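Shipment paperwork, digital attachment
Item: protein structure file
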Amino acid sequence: MSRARTVAGLVAAVLLQVAVLVGMQVGAALPLWTGETVRVATVPVDPRSLFRGNYAILRYDTDAAAETLSPDWDALRHGEVVYLSLVPGGEGLHVWTDAALAPPETGLFVRGRIDHQRSRGADEPPGITLPNIEAFFAPKATALRLERELRAGGVAVISVTANGAAALRDVETRLTR
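Attachment content:
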């Protein structure tokens, strides 16, 4: 193999890796650029971690929506894609209403996944993971402030695209809205 082909192959390999990284960044940021921004009630569960830095794990009350899934909850596979509908509720917040295994034809919805590890029991609906909106990373001072202020709950500001992809914009206390 000639030296020119080797160099061209290395350059192509590097460019491919850069393209994959750029594609991942664009895919993650796309809901922020093109999505509809809504506010959803949330509760931080673990405000800080020594290993991952300063962040809060956010939990959303999706139990009522999960109950609308098939009554045979055990038949749902772990990791199966599920679509949660969002509709405007009181106090300027959107609420989770329905869950389905197919995307709704109309309305705003977020794509999630079935998580049996979050299930509370055989008679309870399965847990649902909502990728990209369940962890909020913040500088240390902001994380400490959120830890104090969000103990009673907060508001997640999320952007949702037409295909159900979501991204977390901000977390606010109920007093700052």
